[in-house]
Amino acid sequence: MTGCLRAELLSIRKRPGVWIVGGAWALLAVTFGMLVPYIVYLSLKGSGSADDPEDLVTGLLPDQFVSSTVGLYPLFGSALMLIFGAVVAGGDYRWGTMGTLLVQRPGRVPTMVGKLLATAVALLCITAVVVTATALASALITALLGRTADWPGVTTVFQGVGAAWLVSMAAASIGTFLAVLFRNTGAAIGVGLVWLLALENLVSGIAGMMPALDVVQRALIGPNGGSLATALGSSTQENGGMPGVVAVSGPVAASLVLVGYVVLFLGLSAVLVNRRDSA
Are 228 and 163 a contacting pair, CB within 8 Å? Predict the structure, then answer.
């Protein structure tokens, strides 16, 4: 099992798509989560507008950067991490190397377990990079504003990393399953993005008008990711927070739903490879 994990980690490190997706997400998180609100703040502050721009910059300061970072995941981060899961799982089908993996020792199940564990490790690394990048951006903005940096405690930072990683794992598990199901990366990304960006947003948008959809909304990745973000202090979309951030349940219930996604879809992926794919 250790050998499988090392091999898959090496494979992930050698794939350009992995670096592109991970780097793109870190760049987008800093740009749209930190720099764009700061630029808007400066624009409103210097224009003499009657709108109070202080709310824009409050979430960028060190004491709230964790909740602001996690608030990026329900809509934007989950989409990128679904692509990540599809790239990792679908690469062997695209290059025709899946058959070689399946006929080698130690067997199908350990090979898939190694691949899934490597995906989890890679996502944790990406999450840590994103949180570090937004922390550095927050420190820079604080210095430019001439304010005192009041950093959150270690526990809060770990909770934020854990929440972001859990949302990433849930989204990546869907990408992994779809890539295995279709044996194709492109189809998996297309169907997955329709699910996350279209279906989930449609349900969340009309749930207020159709109470019967509340149960469905509580079972979706985005709303549960938003519930974790709000538990850490992020504002909901209705209150001026990041798009896609809604609170539908408590942090424990939301975490259990996301864990359920991981167990269900990664388990289905392993079953499909074990029973269907041939060498």
Answer: yes
Among 92-96, 228-232, 275-279, the range scoring the smallest mean pLDDT is 275-279
Among 143, 142, 133, 5, smallest CA distance to 72 is for 133
Distance CA 172, CA 65 (A): 24
Amino acid code (one letter) for 212: A
* Upstream peptide bond of 106 is cis (omega within 30 degrees of 0): yes
Residues 6+ apart with CB under 8 A from 142: 61, 62, 148, 149
Residue whose tokens read 């799982």: 89
Span 136-158, pLDDT tens digits: 999 999 999 888 888 999 999 99
**pLDDT tens, position by position, 213-256:** 788 888 899 899 999 999 998 888 777 778 878 888 899 999 99
The Cα-based distances of 83 to 30, 87, 196 in angstroms read 19, 6, 11
In 31-135 the beta strands, taken as DSSP E runs, fall at none
Cα gap 81→123, rounded to integer Å: 8
Which residues have CB under 8 Å from 156's CB, separation 6+?
Answer: 66, 232
Q: Which amino acid is at 246?
A: V
Residue 52 neighbours by CB distance under 10 Å: 9
| Nearest-angstrom CA–CA distance, 120 and 102 | 21
Cα 131 versus chain centre, distance: 12
Residue 99, pLDDT score = 61
CA 265 – CA 258 distance, rounded (Å):
11
